[in-house]
């Protein structure tokens, strides 16, 4: 340890620059160029389309149940395996359906992100 | 019921859960070394542990007691509550989970401020977090009162006071890391506490060979009574639960403990599975209650169904043992949900109220948090003692409606629409908050709901959510000059995978 008075001047130690190459397409996103905006726009559109798709399936299955029972009240008398239809659908079938939708979503969303990462990591030639 | 031998299993159950909660909390504290551990468990919680913790925190008194009671009283249309509470996580998964984690926000006001760069938006959000948190805490405390009265014969005020004190002890001493272990433990405790008695009671029912009493009185209709009004009420409930989950203050905090956006998605998927398994059980109690304990619905004590059914169906020590188990589960439900909510409300209070300089003096971080926690727990606890009982699941339903018509549109537009502006967000939050607030006040003041007005006010989400969403969009379009300059950069942060080397602002 040197004396405090005679301490040498501080030297800033830096690593190599983190950008692999300035020509990578990530630079377009960082600089918010029109091209970068298009890359981001395509990712957002893909992910939003996927989300809306999953939610539409949800709305057209579970979401239509109240309307179906409202229009056809006789459905309440239908029995499946000794239990009323509404109980089988809402009490049991709904949960695996939700899980399946979630699983499909996670797989596709991760694939969209991989595709995006590959696209923007390519170096322009 | 007179206290005495009858009360023994309940007392043992409550004592064991309380001690286990405090011991696990303390054991977890040994792993908490840094400030980051304290607040966000250093963001290293694995999806499965984190999902158990989310499940433990999310499954409240409304899920554990309320659903079975509602199903007993009203029938299949009440199955929409558990389905909606699970589907809410699917909606959260596809629209919010990964971006919310990537935003780096710890609370909803943090997200709003980071996204829109406005202190006023933050203030409105803080106010709403406190309102929703208290609305949600109220039925937890009231449920604790019901539980201890039903199993121990204790006066109604004992439950809220005990839960309030334990939560306060846990919240003020433990950090997020230790709470994560506690909440995860409490999910599995709650599941066991419904699963084991449920299986035994099912065997008893099969031995009795009593038929399930479906009948023609609308019990197997997944639709509220009253024709078109019933259809409206059911769809409005669906909107509130499907969209409200993402706006609950204690849900958001949990996402921050994930390592990255991808883990946030996977955690949510595991949560969907855990909730699905749990929610198979409460309707079973409702159906069995229909056969063995219809008098509970008639006397207005349906919330106690889960607790009393084992004794009604089984005599002797077996019934007592199962009663002890369900009491333990119910008590865990109050503790975990109340802890999560209290942390969320106390966090906001300490950032925006108790941590502010008052009369020239300013409290330190920990002191401000503790004072915030005391306020966060005391207010709903006192109101729970004074206010009439709303029915556990119904009060929680109103909290969901308010979350769906305030934070849900904010998150949706904040994450997916670059042109949201601070004035748009504020007017939208106020429109949704006032609309649902007025509706809740109206509902609390109406003893016998009838007619369209009461239906619209009793389940407001179907009109307050679109109201808030359109207000946000229209006002934002009118104030395009106020679009935050960093909006584009912020969307890059929300949506790009962390593996990419990008400037995220």
Overall pLDDT level of chain A:
82
How many helices of chain A? The count is 4
The end-to-end span of chain A amounts to: 52 Å
Class by alpha and beta content of chain B: mainly alpha
Succession of helices and strands of chain A: HHHEEH
Q: Quickly count the domains of chain A.
A: 1
Largest sheet of chain A, described in full? 2 strands, antiparallel
- Helicity range of chain A: 55-70%
| Gross geometry of chain A | elongated
Mean pLDDT of chain B: 84
The strand order across the widest sheet of chain A is: 1-2
Oligomeric state of the chains?
heterodimer
Pick out the low-confidence regions of chain A: none
Q: Please give the number of β-strands of chain B.
A: 0
Uncertain regions spanning at least 5 consecutive residues of chain B: 1-5
What is the share of helical residues of chain B? over 70%
> Could you spell the SSE succession of chain B in H and E letters?
HHHHHHHHHHHHHHHHHHHHHHHH
Our estimate of the beta-strand percent of chain A is under 5%
**Overall form of chain B:** globular
Give the termini distance of chain B in whole angstroms: 63 Å
Strand content bin of chain B: under 5%
Fold and architecture overview:
The complex is a heterodimer of chains A (125) and B (505). In chain A, strands 1-2 form a two-stranded antiparallel ribbon. Chain A is mainly α and 125 residues long. In chain A, a hairpin with a 2-residue loop joins strand 1 (79-80) and strand 2 (83-84). Helices cover 62% and strands 3% of the residues of chain A. Chain A has one domain. The longest helix of chain B has 39 residues, at 316-354. Chain B has helices at 8-29, 35-40, 47-58, 61-74, 80-95, 97-103, 108-116, 119-152, 158-173, 176-208, 227-244, 249-255, 261-279, 281-292, 294-298, 305-313, 316-354, 365-386, 392-404, 407-416, 422-445, 451-458, 461-478, 487-495. With 505 residues, chain B is mainly alpha-helical. Residues 1-5 of chain B have low confidence and may be disordered. Chain B has a single domain, classed as Up-down Bundle (Sodium/glucose cotransporter). Chain B has 24 helices and no strands. Chains A and B meet through helix 1, helix 2, helix 3, strand 2 and helix 4 of A and helix 5, helix 11, helix 13 and helix 24 of B.
């Amino acid at each position: 340890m040197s004396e405090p008075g005679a301490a040498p001047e501080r030297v800033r130690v830096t690593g190599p620059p983190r950008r692999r190459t300035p020509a990578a397409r990530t630079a377009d996103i960082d600089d918010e160029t029109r091209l970068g905006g298009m890359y981001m726009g395509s990712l957002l559109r893909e992910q939003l389309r996927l989300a809306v798709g999953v939610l539409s399936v949800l709305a057209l299955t579970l979401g239509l149940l109240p309307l179906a029972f409202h229009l056809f009240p006789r459905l309440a008398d239908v029995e499946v395996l000794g239990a009323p239809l509404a109980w089988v659908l809402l009490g049991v079938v709904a949960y695996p359906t939700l899980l399946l939708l979630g699983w499909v979503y996670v797989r596709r969303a991760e694939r969209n992100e991989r595709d995006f990462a590959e696209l923007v990591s390519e170096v322009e030639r | 019921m007179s206290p005495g031998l009858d009360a023994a299993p309940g007392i043992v159950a409550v004592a064991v859960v309380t001690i286990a909660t405090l011991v696990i909390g303390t054991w977890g504290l040994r792993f908490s070394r840094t400030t980051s551990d304290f607040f966000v468990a250093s963001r290293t919680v694995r999806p499965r542990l984190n999902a158990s913790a989310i499940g433990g925190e999310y499954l409240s008194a409304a899920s554990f007691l309320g659903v079975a009671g509602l199903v007993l009283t009203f029938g299949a249309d009440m199955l929409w509550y558990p389905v909606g509470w699970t589907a809410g996580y699917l909606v959260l998964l596809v629209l919010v989970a990964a971006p919310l984690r990537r935003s780096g926000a710890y609370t909803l006001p943090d997200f709003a401020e980071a996204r829109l760069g406005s202190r006023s938006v933050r203030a409105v959000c803080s106010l709403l977090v406190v309102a929703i948190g208290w609305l949600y805490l109220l039925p937890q405390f009231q449920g604790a009162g019901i539980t201890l009265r039903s199993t121990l014969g204790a006066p109604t005020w004992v439950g809220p006071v005990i839960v309030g004190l334990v939560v306060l002890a846990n919240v003020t001493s433990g950090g997020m890391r230790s709470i994560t272990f506690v909440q995860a433990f409490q999910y599995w405790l709650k599941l066991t506490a419904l699963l084991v008695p449920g299986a035994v009671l099912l065997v008893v029912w099969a031995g009795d060979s009593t038929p399930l009493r479906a009948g023609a009185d609308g019990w197997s209709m997944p639709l509220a009574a009253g024709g078109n009004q019933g259809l409206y009420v059911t769809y409005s409930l669906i909107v509130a639960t499907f969209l409200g989950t993402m706006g609950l203050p204690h849900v958001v905090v949990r996402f921050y403990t994930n390592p990255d956006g991808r883990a946030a998605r996977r955690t949510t998927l595991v949560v969907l599975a855990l909730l699905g398994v749990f929610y198979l059980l409460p309707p079973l109690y409702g159906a069995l209650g229909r056969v063995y304990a219809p008098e509970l619905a008639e006397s207005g004590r349906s919330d106690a169904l889960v607790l009393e059914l084992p004794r009604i169906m089984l005599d002797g020590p077996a019934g007592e043992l199962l009663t002890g188990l369900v009491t333990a589960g119910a008590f865990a439900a109050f503790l975990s949900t109340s802890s999560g909510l209290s942390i969320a409300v106390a966090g906001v209070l300490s950032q925006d109220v108790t941590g502010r300089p008052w009369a020239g003096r300013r409290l330190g971080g920990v002191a401000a948090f503790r004072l915030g926690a005391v306020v966060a727990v005391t207010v709903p606890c006192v109101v729970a003692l004074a206010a009439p009982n709303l029915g556990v699941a119904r009060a929680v339903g109103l909290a969901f409606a308010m979350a769906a018509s305030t934070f849900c549109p904010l998150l949706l537009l904040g994450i997916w629409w670059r042109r949201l502006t601070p004035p748009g967000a504020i007017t939208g939050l106020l429109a949704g908050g006032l609309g649902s607030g007025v509706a809740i006040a109206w509902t609390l003041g109406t003893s016998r709901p009838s007619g369209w007005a009461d239906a619209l006010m009793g389940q407001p989400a179907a009109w307050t959510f679109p109201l808030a969403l359109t207000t946000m969009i229209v006002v934002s379009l009118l104030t395009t000059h106020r679009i935050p300059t960093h909006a584009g950069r912020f969307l890059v942060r929300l949506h790009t995978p962390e593996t990419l080397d990008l400037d995220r602002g």
